[in-house]
Design a protein that fits this description.
Chain A: Keywords: Methyltransferase, RNA-binding, S-adenosyl-L-methionine, Transferase. Chain A: Pfam families: Methyltr_RsmB-F. Chain A: One of its GO terms (molecular function) is tRNA (cytidine-5-)-methyltransferase activity. Chain A: Belongs to the class I-like SAM-binding methyltransferase superfamily. RsmB/NOP family. The complex is a heterodimer of chains A (302) and B (186). By secondary structure, chain A is an alpha/beta fold. Chain A has one domain: Rossmann fold, CATH 3.40.50. Chain A is 28% helix and 23% strand. Chain A has 9 helices and 15 strands. In chain A, the strands form 3 sheets. In chain A, strands 5, 6, 7, 8, 9, 10, 11, 14 and 15 form a 9-stranded mixed sheet that branches. In chain A, strands 2-3-1-4 form a 4-stranded antiparallel sheet. In chain A, strands 12-13 form a two-stranded antiparallel sheet. In chain A, helix 7 packs parallel to helix 8. With 186 residues, chain B is of the alpha+beta class. Chain B folds into 2 domains: 88 residues, no CATH class; 82 residues, Archaeosine Trna-guanine Transglycosylase, Chain: A, domain 4. Helix content of chain B is 19%, strand content 27%. Chain B has 5 helices and 13 strands. Chain B is elongated and about 45 Å long. Chain B starts with a strand and ends in a 10-residue tail after the last strand. Classes of the chains: A alpha/beta (302), B alpha+beta (186). Chains A and B meet through helix 2, helix 3, helix 6 and strand 7 of A and strand 6, helix 3 and helix 5 of B.
């Protein structure tokens, strides 16, 4: 049995889903408003003969008709950053306000971090953490090329992170874009499904749960946490959220990013999940011609 | 007076020489003076930012105001190399803030700009000061840029000028200071 077959009962138009997973992804970049207005990035790409299609749901997300957007002037100037379309979802859902204190729990290589910095108008404090020292250099160089000055990079285990030293008691908003089995990246990584399966998902779910709990505990009352993965596995998505909803002071809230999405599941295998999980969203490759993604928005209560 | 710099912590630059506690450390006033005197960048452009030293002579610029002595991997972006006779802005600082520069900016043709970002040194005429210059070239402006909606657009006549990075001009030659990891060959 192949790794995606177990999802046949939960995915509408499963044949189209499988077909989409076989196709390569369009090349997509995100325009970086810290250094240039997206209109200027589009004009400069056009001046180099690169065709650009702006995505309706997010005008900073640009499909480009070149395989190498890195070899353009807008890239050199830090006006664009290679970022898959669905990867641009969670920062938009978190939607921080300028001046906010924000924590990105698993930040490297920094696509979502720099998007958050852009949404903050490069103000406030954005703590970009990653436990993998080797990936921090990519995070740092991306943040610098894109001109972000509101980012502090840390190298800690997110499960034990504290706000100590930053002069704040809690964050206004936290992005928990956690390590996952990455099944949704199958369109760009042909070997993405080699080691996945229910066992792998259950193994990594413990880590994901701990990171999400830490994210909630470091968020102020009334603040927002976004939980996201790039996997289809319910064990890593609804399963993690269901466990945390049981004993942390959070609730799921509705959101809309303007992409077609399927609601989160309330039942999987022999488990049932909280009814509010329908507020989470599953982004399947055949719906918007993207990679696969999962995203949930939580509000922290007392 | 303490000397040197505690290399694993971000230490805030003193406001001015009177408040300096660490020998040789650049002051906030001197950093703003440098950008204004050398490149004509108005002080109010940099006024909202905080400035830090981590690593001897390495000055960082941050939008965030955090307590002194923070032990993190990075805070904002590397901005300026001090503790040497001629201070040197970083490539990323020149790109981020160089649009506000009005002097010591050398405009490059497309060919010269390509050579510059490939890391090549080149013979070029320049009748201004020697030393560190901001190298720039023209890039399509785009409708929003000419309207100035980013808040960073220059005046109309130079709205298409865009800083590339820092070059060192000496004896008729512009040496590219673009770091290896930022070089590009088009």
């Amino acid at each position: 049995m192949d790794a995606l077959e177990r999802y046949e009962p939960i995915i509408d138009d499963y044949a189209a889903f499988r077909e989409a997973c076989e196709r390569p992804l369009p090349t997509v970049v995100r325009a970086n408003g810290i250094k240039a207005d997206p209109d200027r990035a589009v004009a400069a790409l056009a001046a180099e003969g690169v065709g650009v299609t702006r995505r309706a749901w997010n005008p900073a997300v640009l499909e480009v008709d070149t395989d190498k957007p890195g070899n353009t002037w807008p890239y050199f100037h830090g006006w664009i950053h290679g970022q898959e379309e669905v990867s641009a979802i969670p920062a938009r859902v978190l939607d921080p306000s300028p001046g906010d204190a924000v924590w990105d729990t698993c930040a490297a290589p920094g696509s979502k971090t720099t998007q958050l910095a852009d949404l903050l108008d490069d103000t406030g404090l954005l703590v970009a953490n990653d436990d993998n020292l080797g990936r921090l250099s990519a995070l740092r160089s991306n943040a610098e090329r894109l001109g972000a000055t509101c980012v502090a990079v840390t190298n800690e285990d997110a499960r034990r992170f504290t706000t100590e030293g930053f002069g704040i008691d809690a964050f206004d908003a936290v992005l928990a874009d956690v390590p996952c089995t990455c099944e949704g990246t199958i369109r760009k990584n042909a070997d993405a499904l080699d080691t996945v399966g229910r066992e792998a998902s259950l193994n990594i779910a413990a880590l994901q749960t701990d990171i999400l709990r830490r994210a909630i505990r470091l968020t102020r009352e009334g603040g927002t946490v976004v939980y996201s993965t790039c996997t289809f596995a319910p064990e890593e998505n609804e399963g993690v959220l269901d466990r945390v909803l049981d004993d942390e002071p959070v609730e799921l809230v509705d959101f809309d990013v303007g992409l077609d999405a399927d609601p989160g599941l309330t039942a999987w295998a022999d488990e049932t999940y909280d009814d509010s999980l329908t507020k989470a969203k599953r982004f399947y490759p055949h719906r918007n011609d993207t990679g696969g993604f999962f995203c949930a928005k939580l509000e922290v209560g007392a | 007076m303490a000397d040197g710099n505690t290399s694993h912590r971000f230490e805030r630059l003193p406001a001015n020489a009177d408040e300096r506690a660490v020998e040789g450390r650049a002051t906030r006033a001197a950093v703003l003076d440098y950008w204004e005197e050398r490149f004509g960048v108005p002080r109010d452009v940099l006024a909202p930012y905080t400035f830090w030293e981590k690593g001897a002579g390495k000055i960082w610029i941050a939008a965030s105001d955090v307590p002194d002595g923070l032990a993190v991997e990075s805070l904002g972006m590397t901005f300026l190399r001090t503790r040497q006779e001629h201070w040197k802005p970083t490539t990323n600082a020149a790109q981020r803030f160089g649009r506000h520069a009005t002097r010591n900016v050398i405009d490059l043709t497309r060919e010269a700009a390509e050579a510059f970002v490939a890391g090549e040194d080149q013979d070029l005429a320049w009748d201004g000061d020697w030393g560190y210059l901001i190298a720039a070239h023209d890039v399509a402006a785009g409708a929003a840029e000419t309207r100035g909606t980013t808040g960073e657009a220059s005046d109309e006549g130079s709205a298409r000028r865009e800083p590339l990075g820092v070059g060192l001009y000496l004896h008729g030659e512009l040496r590219s200071m673009i770091p290896k990891g930022r070089r590009r060959e088009f």
